[in-house]
Amino acid sequence: MERLQKILSKAGVASRREAEKLIIAGRVTVNGTVAKLGDQAEESDTIAVDGTVIGKAEEKLYFLLNKPRGYLCTVKDDRGRKTVLELLSDIKEYIYPVGRLDYNTTGLLLLTNDGEFMNGLLHPSREVHKTYAAKVKGIPDNGKLKTLRQGVMLEDGITAPAEVRLIERGTKETEDGRLLDWSTVQLTIHEGRNRQVRRMMSAVGHDVLALKRTAFAGLNLQGVGVGKYRELTKEEVTRLRSLYE
Ligand code: URA
């Protein structure tokens, strides 16, 4: 047995809150009887909204992809560029990415056909943690690392506190024979602004050379090669749901 509003939202009829309103308005029936808020139902019950019987909830699918460079996180591109969905072409159901990574960002991306799951995890109030490894020009000093931790002023406001660590540094020779310092900065943030990590690093004077998301909501890329994907386990889905339910 499940709450009616949950069944309605899973079936894609409305968000849970909107579904509650439908129930309160007396527009939902279970086996022909008008439902009340708080009622529960089973898969086998006939549930209708305004007299139209809703379809059975489609099977929910959840995947973890290791995105390569040069793929868009949109469902389709009018300029014909490759999209991440091409990497899951053997999945016949309509799925979509949970948030976005830039065209040239690599790493962990979830995909699903569960709209509630996607919206739940992306909602800013949930503060889902995302970890990135940013290879940058130069080596940020302690002052800059502190600024990154405390908050950087960007066009759309100051960033929330982040965990930031310098994890690697080196020097490479450029094509014209100059020596270039680089480093890798690991950042864990819980906001999801557009191009946030690239903008944070540029704001402290260290442009990003390569960016990879290494973790999302406690999941990592272990065992998943670049361009490959795996299904999330039931336990993983349950844990991620508990972050927003
Ligand atoms: N921050 C960025 O700058 N780009 C991404 O793709 C993700 C986070």
Structure description:
There is one protein chain. The chain has 245 residues and is an alpha+beta fold. It has three domains: 2-53, Structural Genomics Hypothetical 15.5 Kd Protein In mrcA-pckA Intergenic Region, Chain A, CATH 3.10.290; 62-125 and 220-242, Alpha-Beta Plaits, CATH 3.30.70; 129-216, 2-Layer Sandwich (Alpha-Beta Plaits), CATH 3.30.70. It has six helices and 17 strands. The chain has helices spanning 4-10, 16-24, 115-122, 142-150, 196-203, 234-242, and strands at residues 2-3, 28-30, 33-34, 40-41, 47-49, 52-53, 62-67, 96-97, 106-112, 130-137, 153-154, 157-158, 163-173, 179-189, 208-216, 219-220, 229-231. Strands 7, 8, 9, 10, 13, 14, 15, 16 and 17 form a nine-stranded mixed sheet that branches. A hairpin with a 2-residue loop joins β2 and β3. The two termini are 17 Å apart. The model has no long low-confidence stretch (mean pLDDT 92). Bound molecules: uracil (URA). Uracil (URA) is lined by residues 101-102, 105, 195-198, 211.
Secondary-structure topology with pairs:
Blueprint: E1 2-3, H1 4-10, H2 16-24, E2 28-30, E3 33-34, E4 40-41, E5 47-49, E6 52-53, E7 62-67, E8 96-97, E9 106-112, H3 115-122, E10 130-137, H4 142-150, E11 153-154, E12 157-158, E13 163-173, E14 179-189, H5 196-203, E15 208-216, E16 219-220, E17 229-231, H6 234-242
Bound molecules: uracil (URA).
Uracil binds next to helix 5.
